[in-house]
Predict the structure.
Amino acid sequence: MTWRPEPQIDEAVRLLRAGGLVAFPTETVYGLGADASNPAAVARIFAAKERPADHPLIVHLASASQVEGWVSAFPGKARDLAAAFWPGPLTLVLPRAPGVLNAVTGGQETVALRVPSHPVAQRLLCRFGGGVAAPSANRHGRVSPTLARHVREELGDRVDLILDGGACEIGLESTIVGVTGEAITLLRPGRIARAEIEAVAGPVSGPGAAAPRVPGSLRAHYAPTTALELVDAATLDRRCAAAGEAGRVAVLARRPAAAGCRALAWHQAAADAPGYGHDLYASLRELDGLGVSRILVEEVPAGEEWAAIRDRLARAARRDPPDAP
């Protein structure tokens, strides 16, 4: 059941305190929330999503003032990043405090924290007063939800309450940054770009072999049930003109269909990165529901502003070999 947020914050807080699951909007995607200090409630997240037990969760907080209870260290550069980007679409991965649940951290010595800016999320977190563990509110590995109805379609009665805050502003998951002392690592691209992080905290490296596992880092992720394939413009036009295949494919591209295109459906996406990212998951869900054999996605441009979109599409297109832990 979907509830309007204004009269239902009290009910959402009551459910969280009782160990329930509450889906709520953030500026990135909808999250599936549970009390991050309640082992049974956190276990319900994994069961509802069918999520691997070693895949860590992000703890959502009302403000940076709550960080201290979750970490053993809050380095200066992490404080600088929090001051610059919180509330907002930035997740910080920091050394965990001793009492943080292993289920939340995926058994690692780090914990992922975020302060979302969506007004419904802020009201919920302020009233709850603690940390809410909240991965995206969908089955594991599938397309993230950006509308309340996406949550309902994905999880049904697996969630106790859905707070409907409308369409998510950004539509892509948060940027994840690890901070260890002076070292800054970009662990997942998002709306906040590498250059913005470097402007605040200095040089940023990419994840190495010893980098912590973070949400959305599996080789295959964000995938519709229909096979998705990334293709260049020439290949896309050739395949959409081929009578044998075209009637069984749907297309996502940043331009109109070429003359002679026989694709069953052609979805023209926004030409700019923010618009494309905002609509991406809703577009994939729409195309996924058409019953085609394949979704063809035209490759997006190079450049930092498209990095998060390229990351999500690349993972959505990978199906073999299976994910490694």
